[in-house]
Amino acid sequence: MNSELMEALDTLEREKNIKKSTLLEAIEQSLIQACKGHFGKADNIEVHIDPETGDFQVLANRTVVETVSDPALEISLVDAQKINTNAQLGDIVKVEIHSREFGRIATQNAKNVILQKIREEERKVLYNEYYGIEKEVVTGIVQRINGKNISINLGRVDATLNENEQVKGETFRPNERIKVYILEVKDTPKGPRIQVSRTHPGLVKRLFESEVAEVRDGTVEIKCIAREAGSRTKIAVWSNDPDVDPVGACVGMNGIRVNAIVNELRGEKIDIINWNENPALLIENALSPAKVIAVMADPDEKTALVVVPDYQLSLAIGKEGQNARLAARLTGFKIDIKSETQAREAGDFYEYDDEYDDEYYDEYEDDGYYDDEYYDSEYAEEGEYADPDEAYEPEEEYAPEDDGTEE
Questions:
Q1: For the CA atoms of the chain, what is the radius of gyration?
Q2: pLDDT of 144-166, one tens digit each?
Q3: With the C-alpha atoms ordered 349, 350, 351, 352, is the resulting torsion angle positive or negative?
Q4: How far is residue 108's CA from residue 293's CA, in Å, rounded to a whole number?
Q5: How many domains does the chain divide into?
Q6: 3-state secondary structure at position 146
């Protein structure tokens, strides 16, 4: 029986990752509980279990008395001397209790104690396992669709993809494999409750870490991300090694790295720009692919006036203001975009010549963002830095000041 017990404990430890010592402790508690159910009390009970062989002893400490009034705590001198011939009145004698003496109810209670302990430990192990990978990306399998929410199997536990964490327009089929960002892990009496997301900026960051070795080893840092899930993401990167081009590392040869991420995000556009500590240069990069004549940034007020060529105004603002909105979220500045003509008429642009040099812009046109062919006609149709690891609230959409120009 002991060998079968140890085999069962080994199986539980291997399959459910519950330590054998914890299971032995549960058995010890169950035996004490059985004694309490059988004798009515268990304050004087000792349980000894050999962790190697599984042999166990249940001993009751009983006081030697002349007349026994409480058999659970006392023993007569005659019975005590059968156990220890040197026993005297007032001594404490250890009396072995045999588990087969327990009644059916006491045995059932002992069994329930063991099962309850196993369930508690299993929940604890699962919680610790998934809490340790909170804010990470995992691959799950779509189990079922519950109304507007989706149940995702992560291996040993199911997670919930709520409607507000789903990308608008994305559809899933049962048994489909998808990558999700673990948003939150909560410990509940029924086991860990896991919330996952497909819209969080952290999903993009973790995907770059998995695809780009330079990001994974820290050579290239992702400084900030602004994302409109399902449509477009802007990401600012910085290299700690002057010999490594951060944008080129993230794009990969022939765009292989960024395209793998785009495919995982089901066609979401990704703009990769160079990070710069100078707010004006960062804002200029963030407004790519639009050309910028001048940026006047106020770091204290977190505001910036950006002047662009007349024919670039709609490109800078983007379709439905998306380019300007993402640039504002990425940089943390409230950005006011004006055409050159509007800036001159408003008196904001006196110190500049009437003509600007297109060759200057041509030289820097591709500096700091993904290749021109990556941008489609979508642009032309019309706070603080965004930390991708922080939980986020949907931000109020950026709306450029009414300058009389249709977007």
A1: 35
A2: 888 889 999 998 899 999 999 99
A3: positive
A4: 82
A5: 3
A6: strand
For residue 389, tell me if it sits in a domain. no
CA pair distance 154, 181, nearest whole angstrom = 11
Whether 11 is in a domain gets the answer yes
Sign of CA pseudo-dihedral 10, 12, 18, 24: negative
Residues 141 and 230 in one domain: no
Q: Name the DSSP class of 323.
A: H
**Interatomic CA distance for residues 311 and 307, integer angstroms:** 12
One domain for residues 112 and 153: no
Q: What is the pLDDT of residue 24?
A: 82
Domain span including residue 121: 2-130
Q: What's this model's pTM, rounded to 2 decimal places? A: 0.69
Longest dimension (CA), the chain: 118
* Secondary structure letter of residue 200 according to DSSP: -
Burial class (CB in 10 A: 0-12, 13-18, 19+), 267: exposed
Which CATH number characterizes residue 161's domain?
2.40.50.140
181-237 pLDDT tens trace? 999 999 988 889 999 999 999 999 999 999 999 999 999 999 999 999 999 999 999
Asked if 219 and 241 count as a contact pair (C-beta separation under 8 A), the reply is yes
Assess whether 208 and 348 both reside in one domain: yes
Beta pairing partners, 235:
225, 272
289 shares a domain with 143: no
At 363 the pLDDT is 42
* pLDDT recorded at residue 325: 95
b or e along 87-107 (b: 16 or more beta carbons within 10 Å of the residue's beta carbon)? beeeeebeeebeeeebeeebb
Distance CA 19, CA 8 (A): 12
Establish if 231 belongs to a structural domain. Answer: yes
Residues in the chain where the model's pLDDT stays below 50:
1, 352-385, 391-407
pLDDT for the residue 106: 67
Q: What is the pLDDT of residue 352?
A: 47
